[in-house]
Amino acid sequence: MDDLRVTSPPSLHPEAPAGEDAVHGESMVVNMGPSHPSTHGVLRLVLTLDGEVVKAVQPHLGYLHRGMEKIAEGMTYNQFVPYTDRLDYLAPLSNNVAYILAVEKLLGITVPPRAQVIRVMCCEIARISAHLLWLGTGALDLGAATVFFHTFRERETLYNIIEALTGARLTTSYTRVGGLSRDLPAGWTGQVRSFVDTFPKFLDELDSLLTRNRIWMKRTQGVGRISAPDAVALSLTGPNLRGTGVAYDVRKTEPYSGYETYEFDVPVGSEGDAYDRYLVRFEEMRQSVRILDQALRRLPDGPVAVDDPKITLPKKERVLTSMEELIEQFMLVTEGIKGPVGEVYHAIEAPKGELGFYIRSEGDKSPYRLHIRSPSFINLQAIETMAVGGLLSDLIAVVASLDPVMGEVDR
Amino acid sequence: MEGPYIAPLPPRQVVDLLRERFPGALEDVAEFRGEITVVIAKDALLDVARFLRDDPGTAFDMLSVVTGTHYLERDHDYEVLYHLYSLPRNHRLRLKVRLDEGETVPSVVSIWPGANWPEREVYDLVGVRFSGHPDLRRIIMPEDYPDHPLRKDFDVEGGPRDARPRGRVASPGFRDMESV
User: Fold this and answer.
1) Mutate which of B28, B36, B63, B65 to test chain A, going by most A C-beta atoms within 10 A?
2) 3-state DSSP: chain B helix, strand, coil percent, rounded to 5?
3) What percentage of chain B exceeds 70 in pLDDT?
4) Bridge partners (DSSP) listed for residue A59
5) Measured between alpha carbons, how far is A255 from A249 in angstroms, rounded to an integer?
6) How far apart are CA A75 and CA A367, in angstroms?
């Protein structure tokens, strides 16, 4: 009698749940993205919905794939720096530092103290700016438009600081192997000082707009929940992991650029929901201001790059007057920096989580293989755990609270 | 954190544990810039991975990332690398498996679910197949893409192998200029 049983027709979409739901005939496949205002770029999600309830999420990536890892194989180490701007394009300074630290680990060099302090400031400015954008757009997605205008006003201050430092607002390319592309411009520390003095007051205002706001709490509490063991198993890092209560921060566990000498706290959540991720990121901005304040106080004088003719370019006036320096510049520009044979992995705590670069060197001027461990790509894996079983409108809160940047997901 | 920060030593005791527990599975051990790389036999991968995750002395509860490298003119064609991190013990280890063309490697998704997308990426871009992976599809390139762009024999200017007309030179533009 088995052949008389009514079988449901084969699903149009492989992800659509078969069986009971198919009998009800109610599940619907909806395409969201790649250009949807709440997907923050070109994330495409194929959703299987039962009414308002999300039954399955299938992310489709690759719309912003530029083949950066392949490009790196044909470039000298310094030539790849501008490409790192285009990874997490909301925190390019932080990407510059992450990449260059991996190269410096490969070469086995340490940069002068002044360069280290400036790099720490770069990372923290990038973190505040990235978190401000996340907060503004995330709140906008959930209907709180006011926050957006306030955070973008503060971001503008930061972008002016970044522009004064690097000459560009977005494509900073500030670091070089062995140091920085240039020293701080005159008056820059004053700009940062006035930001450090005024920003905490702004954070308090923002705090009063959202943290105890009834609508905001209703939209984020209990939404997109993930447990700490699940988060660790799925390799989540950054605020998404810390929101579950795991205090993993690369700045504390494997300090780089002298982070071990700064005083700051690592905020953690307890529930692992969107609200906790919001609280963690919010507090991180306060902690970043603390670090900036300490960095400004201790900023030492001295060079911002190592003095090694095989790694950094000599001074221009020396090149024009001295034979040695002319040869050194010629060799460095034409031959590039040769790395030793070996492989390294170096990670930093980027705004989105653990940003790591794996470099395999065969002793050539360019890496044999370069892999970018981008936090957004790995964090995005958790979207299924967080969104399935919830409402479609909560999916917006989940994507916003995961904070993926597609430039980094697709690379 | 109390007192001055002292960078931890590389976890050499992990290698000793592995040697003791899996004699014969370790093909090579290298240390470079404070990082330990352990090359293990493909067949032992799942056992070693499970041991590394569960043993309290190793406790590698997080898989940072999986990546792969294609080699030309070597004894092996591929290397698959697993970057492990331990939250409780705060140490790192790089596991490496060497493969020949056409060989598959067991998927570690059952041990670290976070390996899912990285393994798909290695399959997509490098061309290594993972046996036992729950959902081994391309993730970055289009589903009908005929090649694996991170392979070393991938022709950057000529495009994917199967889509290229036979006999066409890699870079017609340059050839044309030479003949002028």
Assistant:
1) B65
2) 25, 25, 50
3) 82
4) A45
5) 9
6) 8
Q: Any idea what DSSP says for residue B87?
A: T
Instruction: Record the tokens describing residue A113, joined without a space.
Output: 């103290």
Residue type, A168: A
DSSP one-letter code for B76 = -
C-alpha to C-alpha distance for B175 and B169, rounded to whole angstroms = 8
Q: Is the pLDDT of residue A159 over 50?
A: yes
Which among B37, B114, B150 is the nearest to A233, CB-wise? B114
pLDDT of residue B6: 67
Place of tokens 């503004």: A136
CB contact under 8 A, A378 and B113: no
Q: Rounded distance, CA A398 to CA A379, Å?
A: 12
Chain B hits for A234, Cβ within 8 Å: 113-114
Q: Show the DSSP H helices in A57-213 as ranges.
A: 68-72, 81-85, 92-107, 113-141, 145-166, 188-210
- pLDDT tens digits along A293-329: 999 999 999 888 888 888 888 888 888 888 888 888 8
d(CA A207, CA A209): 5
How far apart CA A180 and CA A306 sit, in angstroms, is 9
Q: What is the pLDDT of residues B45-75, one digit of tens each?
A: 998 999 988 888 888 999 999 999 998 888 8
Question: Residue A228: which of B70, B29, B87, B26 has the closest Cα?
Answer: B87
How many CA within 13 A on the CB side of residue B176? 5
Please name each of the domains of chain A with its CATH number.
2-60 (no CATH), 68-410 (1.10.645.10)
Tell me the β-bridge partners of B78.
B70, B99
**Token pair 């013990």: residue:** B89
Subunit contact B114:A381, Cβ cutoff 8 A: yes
Structural domains of chain B in order of their starting residue, each with its CATH number: 12-142 (3.30.460.80), 146-180 (no CATH)
Looking at residue A329, its pLDDT comes to 87
